[in-house]
Model the fold of this input.
Amino acid sequence: MATIMPQSELARKALAWISAERAETGKPVSKLIEEACVRFNLGPKDAEYLQRQLTDSESPSETC
Done:
């Protein structure tokens, strides 16, 4: 039997999954967000949240 989780919990799990996949595969963040939305059944607002979290956490020193 599946357990129902609050959307915020799913978004947190998606964020953790994206971080792990990004470190492991090096895929672009936008592609990983799309995959996470399908995998975790997230909506457009959750996708925006993930995008904000991932772009806000990047500093210029990390992208060089």
Summary: The chain is about 75% helix and 0% strand. Residues 7-57 form one domain. Residues 59-64 have pLDDT under 50 and may be disordered.
